[in-house]
Amino acid sequence: xxxxxxxxxxxDEEHGLSFPALAMYPTRQVPVSHAFGPYVMDVGPDAPVAPxxxxxxxxxxxxxxxxxxxxxxxxxxxxxxYVVAMxxxxxxxxxxxxxxxxxxxxxYRPRHLKLAADALYRDAFLGSHLQAGQLGVIGHSxxxxxxxxxxxxxxxxxxxxxxxxxHGPEPAIVEVEHDDRVKALVLLAPATVxxxxxxxxxxxxxxxxxxxxxxxxxTPAWHNDIVLKGVRDPANITSRCVKNAGHFSFLSPxxxxxxxGGALPTVDPEGFDRERFHEQLKQEILxxxxxxxxxx
Length: 296
Hints:
Blueprint: E1 2-12, E2 17-27, E3 32-36, E4 39-45, E5 54-60, H1 71-79, E6 83-87, H2 103-122, E7 130-140, H3 142-150, E8 156-157, E9 172-173, E10 182-188, E11 208-215, H4 221-230, E12 237-246, H5 256-259, H6 274-292
Parallel strand pairs: 1-4, 5-6, 5-7, 7-10, 10-11, 11-12
Antiparallel strand pairs: 1-2, 2-6, 3-4, 8-9
Helix pairs in contact: 1-6, 2-3
């Protein structure tokens, strides 16, 4: 099986926003090299979908990131029987970060995941190939927040209110949209401080694969502890720490030209082999989702 791709522009009409999404899916059409910005992939643009019905997986990127930063994982899933949609969150991406740290970001991120799922289930091209109610979410960093919120988490704001010595406004619940179609989560170095209050994650009752990084100054181990202690049934969680990894090690390996610039997302702890890790990571995520969605 090969990988087809289709680009979408989705709308949040209620808030006057729009955002791009790139869907990958199984196809029998032989791929060609195709560039998406600086990233070249062997795919079939708008290729026919291979006959069959597939689970839908949404991918939510980290704060200030891009939907294209998880392309190795998503291409592997698409090649093996999933429709995978990477969305770029309005106001919290690489070119527009106006909502970073604001309550709007907490509200919009899960809403836009739900809007993306709704649009794809209705889509004339992909909709008939999607298994009804079989939805998973992969979230990295702030994308992990979005995944937990969509799956039933209740966030609180501001997060500083849960630190010792805080003297600001009383924290309040943030109203977010949930989606009971979500059947599994994959959390990669998730940002979870908004779920620190007791019972905030009580509504999350789905299987979770949660991977953390040993050297992560942004979402250290206590972010994982919030999930492990907060969900309804901790037995639902498969959790491990990736040795010597950094926070950005979960991003797909960058092309040499970008790596040469030395930007923080391209850098790993000394001795960490991101290329080798991603060969293993994409297989681990596929195996986990296959168990959750009962695929061979």
